[in-house]
Amino acid sequence: MMENIHLAAEDEDDLYTGYNDFNPTFDSEDLDNDVGFQQAVRTSHGRRPPMTAKFPGTAIGGRPIGTSFGSRMPMGSSMGRPATGAVQDAGAARPMTAVRAAGYSSSLARGSTFDPLGQSKGPAPPLEAKNEDTPEEKIKILEKKVNDLIEESCMAQANGDLQLALEKAKEAGRKERALVRQREQTGTADHITLDLTYSVLFNLANQYANNDMNTEALNTYQVIVKNKMFNNAGRLKVNMANIYFKQKNYPKAIKFYRMALDQISNAHTEMRIKIMQNIGVAFIRMGQYSDAITSLEHIMSESPNIKTGFNLILCYYAIGDREKMKKSFQKLICVPLGIDEEDKYIPANDDPHTNLVIEAIKNDQLHQMERERKALAEKYIMTSAKLIAPAIETSFAAGFDWCVDMVKSSQYVELANDLEINKAITYLRQKDFNQAVETLKMFEKKDSRVKSAAATNLSFLYFLEKDFDQADRYADLAMNADRYNPAALINKGNTVFVKQDYEKAAEFYKEALRNDSSCTEALYNLGLTHKRLGRLEEALDSFIKLHAILRNSAQVMYQLASLYEMLEDPHQAIEWLMQLISVTPTDPWVLAKLGELYDSEGDKSQAFQYYYESFRYFPSNISVIEWLGAYYIDTQFCEKAIQYFERATLIQPNQVVWQLMVASCYRRSGNYQKALETYKDIHRKFPDNAECLRFLVRLCTDMGLKEVQEYATKLKKVEKMKEIREQRVKSGRENSARGRREGSASSGGSQSQIRTPPTKPSGTLITYLLVHIQ
């Protein structure tokens, strides 16, 4: 074991040699006396400013970051070494490095207190107020006012207040000019905002156009168009052309449309098509159909649409080109609508999520737009077919058949039945009722919707012809095909009404109203039915509801006046009649009714005014003539009454009463000679008139004429004959009454009933002619 032990020789180095030796550079005890170190502290390196960081809103905001370069108090090290770093001045020492960022500071000397959050400094100073007196700030405020005025003008236009919109647009224009002047004064004319100027002028021109100030609008548009600094300002010539079109200055409109067309590139296809369509319409308005055809044919070849196709058909119809009309109609029915099929909105399975989605989109705005587009297309096709059918073939029936065949082979198959219905309506307009009936009878075996429409029209036709049994039959057929068809229910109610079954008629009218609450025919007829049943309050309620829908309907107003008269409220009746004559001021029957109501109220002057107006518009109304003549007699103006009774004599020459009234007026006015001549003339025409003979006897006696005995003898004969006639009539009545009593006793009490024919309704029944299939 000793061989592994190594003994150090005396001449080897000590293992711990140098442990107590150190570099005198690291000796910090005498640094205060070290001249070289003190000189280094005083160099520029030690005098660098402290690095601070001010980040508002952070934990260290407003406080310097403690680094070795900051100023803090010197601290002695654990070995007695003074803190290194330079001192900036005699009062502040170098800051601590690790704790300064946390809010601590070593500079607590000279009476400073511990305040890590800086609360002793007080609140932060207020923000410096923006100086609005500077020219730049004034310009910015003015620009904002101009933009606000433009926005207010647009909002006023959207709300329908066009006058306010124009005032705001004018004020925006004034502010914008003031803004330009202010920029020129401040020497910043280069910074004028062209977009703002364009917006002001464009809005002002629009508001002028909306307020029908076309000259001012054109002048404003001209200012924009002539300014070359505005980009794409040439497109506004379309707006100018629209104004000329509105003024019916079609040549000028076409000129500006073409100028706008030249400034729009081929990339904007849709806009170019619309402008060319406007050019075509302007040519149609001018009657230059050949030029219009050129534009419209180009559109139909590039981007066909329904309106252009319809206008093209109109042009060819105007020039009478049959073949072109046919080709244009074929193009029209081939125009794609770009809408989805209706099957899309029908649930295909029981998936609740899918059904919810379909229910949500079934009546959304997109589907409504699709329905409107389809309805518009069907309207144009129907109108085109009705227009060209009589012109494209030798007869209108053959033309309709061709149109029906074309429609059946297109995407509008369901319109074929509508065209057949319109064919029947055309027969009606031509008063060819037999052909109309035959055409409509063809639909009896069609689907329920078409069958209901045809049967409704057939019921209407037979009702007009007073064939109420056939009208009732087809009304039942229409109801069986479609129970929810209000027109069929109305026709059924009308057929029941004329049979005087008013309760049942009222039920049909009410059912029609349940199916269509806005059906005015049903509401009117229901009011007439209640009136016939004596339910005046219910009738009044029906007609008041109808008046809320048809504000200017003369029939409704007259019915309301009639009901108030029946309810013994003449003031309300007069008020409704006054409203009625504001709608129909020349209706003599309404004026006569007003005169009658004022007469019943005792206001003779107002009654005379309305009776006279009625006579002026219709001088053949006997009741009005009689009232006016009697009025002049009562007011002792018999001479004026004569002209009215003479007119009545002309209207009813076989009525002796009017001639007697003329003679009486002469007698009352003291013209006895004229009265005598008139009575003699009456006696020649009516020799058996006892009243005329009495006046002749009286006049001849008063005037001392010799004819008095002659007329007295004739008067006695006439009175005797009158007595004999009365005796005969009286005995005849007694014999007939005795015979009826004897017949009743011999028949054992059985009694025959005599049914009187139904009376004609006092009110006009409004029937419903179904032109289009519902």
Any chance you could write out the topology, listing elements then pairs?
Blueprint: H1 35-41, H2 135-158, H3 162-185, H4 194-210, H5 214-226, H6 237-246, H7 250-262, H8 269-286, H9 289-302, H10 306-319, H11 322-333, H12 352-361, H13 365-392, H14 396-408, H15 415-429, H16 433-441, H17 448-464, H18 468-481, H19 486-498, H20 502-515, H21 520-533, H22 536-549, H23 554-566, H24 570-583, H25 588-600, H26 604-617, H27 622-634, H28 638-651, H29 656-668, H30 672-685, H31 690-703, H32 708-746
Account of the protein in words:
The chain is an all-alpha fold. It has helices spanning 35-41, 135-158, 162-185, 194-210, 214-226, 237-246, 250-262, 269-286, 289-302, 306-319, 322-333, 352-361, 365-392, 396-408, 415-429, 433-441, 448-464, 468-481, 486-498, 502-515, 520-533, 536-549, 554-566, 570-583, 588-600, 604-617, 622-634, 638-651, 656-668, 672-685, 690-703, 708-746. Helix 3 (162-185) runs antiparallel to helix 4 (194-210) and helix 31 runs antiparallel to helix 32. It is elongated.
